[in-house]
Amino acid sequence: MEPITSLIQAMGAVPVVLTVLLSLITSAHVVLYKRDSRAAVAWVGLVWLAPIVGSALYALLGINRIRRQAAGQRAQRPFIGSGEIPRMLAPAERATLPDQVSHFHTLAELVDRVADRPLTAGNSVTPLIDGEEAYPEMIAAIDGAERSVALCTYIFDDDYAGRLFLDALERATSRGVEVRVLIDTVGARYSHPPIQRELKHRGVPHALFGRTRVPWRMPYVNLRSHRKILVVDGRLAFTGGMNIREGHLVVRPSRNPTQDMHFRVEGPVVAQLMRTFCEDWAYTTHESLDGEQWFPALSRVGGVAARAVNDGPDEDFEKARFVLLGALACAQKSVRIVTPYFLPDSGIISALDVTALRGVRVEIILPEKNNLAFVQWASTAQLWQVLHRGAHVFYARPPFDHSKMMLVDGGWSLFGSTNWDSRSLRLNFEIIVEAYDTALAAKLNEIVDAKLEGAREVTADEVNGRSLPVKLRDGVARLAAPYL
């Protein structure tokens, strides 16, 4: 009996040994590959406090598979658009800053090194407010396409607005225009049935970003393509924060009306936006897009110096974060931030505080009622950190404002898909455009002024005066800020 008893005891110890081994392997991976020490400590703690569950969650949410896969695939294939893009990046064509914005030269130099793309001269940028202004121009551009249409978006709903774009894309395809549509896998599921069924039925070439075979073909919550880019004939581009859904048509009755901004862009910087789309399309489909239909020769059409900056959990990691920090460091008079989600990390909060303490007026405009209550609770729990150092926070009146802009000293503007939270700055693929031009900044400042007309300023006393249950609720939500 003793040998049998010993065997049973030994077999009973096997699960414990395997659990410890799994926790050790997972912890080693965390230590080796997690750059953020706080995230590493949190993951290691979870792995040991809830060994099997923690390891499973880390395997699902914590490993940056896209970064490793992207690096491997890009190393195996030639540079995308190799025939046209290098000519656009020639040093002789790099922009010099106009005298009105010359004090931003250190910022331009920083972004030169971070973005690995030159600042281009001769661009035109036009802000478009809500779907009422943006959608008609975008659809007209698609209808006017002669050679190519490249569209990527996070959300493409099968609703009234989505059908307008669907019809236009079908018309372009039937004319013989080269059309490519890239939708994020998670974003494609915001409506049912998903729009890709109709795209397939109508013969519009499309693909889903971020599809995985393991586990069980389930897309990962993080590592999403949050970019919004439309490029027509390689010459005209639209980018910003606007998805394709009827809620952005604010005047039209809908369940979730959403204010937002998009930007019409022309000039040499369009090639950089096209390059971003081509890289994402090649990563997803293994098809390289090249030639005059995608990368025509571009001439100067305006006076804006501009540059597109990729951000994502691959070789573009934290580029947007460096741009934000650089802009705050260069600010001399004013910083204006419009964002729907404000959950910055401690480094960005410190930079905001230092900027305000230097005497720069820092204004942060947030939606009064967020579309994600949990995010608003977490954001509120952090506001005291910037309010106590002199920043001004305003709640813009409904409907929910999804706009994303940063303006500095009336001469530098930043717009695109990036939010001021860890998901955008660390976990998602984003696109932003920096622009040096006082006329454009003046237009955008007028738009911000209009947002502030009906806004309410938030005070430190108001934030500190929340009831204890509300503070506890908001504080608990703040603990999840890195994952929101």
Task: Provide key terms for this protein.
single chain; 484 residues; alpha/beta; Endonuclease, Chain A; 3 domains; 15-stranded mixed sheet; two-stranded parallel sheet; 17 helices
Task: Give the structure's gist in a few sentences.
With 484 residues, the protein is of the alpha/beta class. The chain has helices at residues 2-33, 37-49, 51-62, 65-76, 85-88, 105-115, 130-143, 160-174, 196-201, 269-285, 319-330, 346-357, 373-387, 422-427, 438-453, 460-464, 468-479; strands at residues 120-129, 148-153, 178-184, 206-209, 229-232, 236-240, 258-259, 261-266, 304-311, 334-338, 342-343, 361-367, 392-396, 400-401, 405-408, 412-416, 420-421, 430-436, 456-458.
Task: Give me the secondary-structure topology.
Elements: H1 2-33, H2 37-49, H3 51-62, H4 65-76, H5 85-88, H6 105-115, E1 120-129, H7 130-143, E2 148-153, H8 160-174, E3 178-184, H9 196-201, E4 206-209, E5 229-232, E6 236-240, E7 258-259, E8 261-266, H10 269-285, E9 304-311, H11 319-330, E10 334-338, E11 342-343, H12 346-357, E12 361-367, H13 373-387, E13 392-396, E14 400-401, E15 405-408, E16 412-416, E17 420-421, H14 422-427, E18 430-436, H15 438-453, E19 456-458, H16 460-464, H17 468-479
Parallel strand pairs: 2-3, 3-4, 7-14, 10-12, 11-17, 12-13
Antiparallel strand pairs: 1-8, 1-9, 2-5, 5-6, 6-8, 9-18, 10-15, 13-19, 15-16, 16-18
Helix pairs in contact: 1-2, 1-3, 2-3, 6-11, 7-8, 11-12, 13-17
